[in-house]
Amino acid sequence: MASKWHISIIVLALLFGGSKANPAAPSHSQLDVNHKKPLQTFRPYNIAHRGSNGELPEETAAAYLRAIEEGADFIETDILASKDGHLICFHDVTLDATTDVVNRTEFAHRKRTYEVQGAKVTGWFVVDFTLKELKSLRVKQRFSFRDQRYNGKYQIITFEEYILIALYADRIVGIYPEIKNPVFINQHVKWSNGKKFEDKFVETLLRYGYKGAYMSEDWLRQPLFIQSFAPTSLIYVSNMTNSPKVLLIDDTNTPTQDTNQSYYEITSNAYLAFIRNYVIGIGPWKDTIVPPKDNYLGQPTDLVARAHALNLQVHPYTFRNENSYLHFNFHQDPYVEYEYWLNEIGVDGLFTDFTGSLHKYQEWTKPYPKKQKKAEALLHEIGTMLKNDGY
User: Fold this and answer.
1) Alpha-carbon span 366 to 211, nearest angstrom
2) Can you give the residue ranges of the GP-PDE domain (predicted)?
């Protein structure tokens, strides 16, 4: 297991912008997880949406470290690619909303207009910047009503750096990366030997030991869900890895970006029966499961029941604590919203911007069984003894 000193060096490099774009990939022995507290699997998953981004700028090392500290089961990220083919953690194909690029005069000439998912978009695009240039930018909070004190303190991180944050945690923490805008990325970024964005994505996961079907021994050691709004990308990567995959589902009026299928088609019984050959679950926008009207909850659809009937998990997004995101039924109380979705709708995981509040709710309502805690402590003690004895 890596020493605390080694972990500290990596974390400091990530937080404050070390000179290396990617820390050296550690050997498997350095990442031994046999004595770590295991991933909980007895209750729905707490998925840290872009890290704990309700508190800190999204998809930064700080946001992911905070989410782990607050009890996240999985840390979630979006993966895009730089001009020179490096995979990075970033949500938008443009840099405008969450970095200082607009104020960086040296990049003023990089502003472009491209077609993205059928619409003309103007801004500073990730695909027009090298990794070194992206690392020179500083990240800021997306929403003006959230804490602005951390703007400018953190940089964009790579896919590998994100993986290392999870692997070096003091307990087993899963990762939940999204193959983001694959059609656009494959149009603008080219790799050698005809490789695609999806190839580089899976190669990175395999290089760091991520493999195995859901709940397999390999998966429990290094938990992973691969997600995408693009069905063809999920089908394509199924030929390279058996790690579990989740089909994301957008608003009812938004077609899939690669196959141009409607929401109604991809949530039909026939399509769910087809896609379950490639995915273990779906990740719908929560308002497609329970459509609201005038900010009040409407009648729930049968999407969750139909997915569960096909043994598909349901991980809706995104849960946020602010009043502007809470339907009136919840009386400005995010814990009431958690209660509704976990107990009445019965989903299998939640994407949340506020990892700490979801963790507190689950610890209050469904804490670790005492026997499980004792067993984990005993296993940890035995493992430490064996290690000290040279085994």
Assistant:
1) 29
2) 44-362
CA 384 to CA 391: how far, in whole Å? Answer: 10
Residue pair 74/358 in contact (Cβ under 8 Å)? The answer is no
pTM: 0.90
- Tokens matching residue 268: 């039909």
Alpha carbons 73 and 176: distance in angstroms, whole number: 10
Give SS3 for 63.
helix
The predicted-structure confidence for 225-276, as pLDDT tens digits, reads as follows 999 999 999 999 999 999 999 999 999 999 999 999 999 999 999 999 999 9
Q: Work out whether strand 313-314 and strand 281-284 pair parallel, antiparallel, or are unpaired.
A: parallel
Residue 292: its H or E element: strand 292-293
Residue with tokens 């695609």: 196
DSSP string, 299-362: ---SHHHHHHHTT-EE--B-B--SGGGS-GGGTT-HHHHHHIIIIII--SEEEES-HHHHHHHH
Query: Residue 358: what are its φ and ψ, rounded to 5°?
Result: -65, -40
Res 369: pLDDT: 82
Reduced to 3 states (helix: H, G, I; strand: E, B; else coil), residue 101 is: helix
Q: What type of residue sits at position 118?
A: G
308 φ, ψ (degrees, to nearest 5): -65, -35
Q: Contact at 8 Å (CB) between 213 and 244?
A: yes
| Backbone Cα Rg of the chain | 21
- Report residue 35's pLDDT band, with 50, 70 and 90 as the boundaries: confident
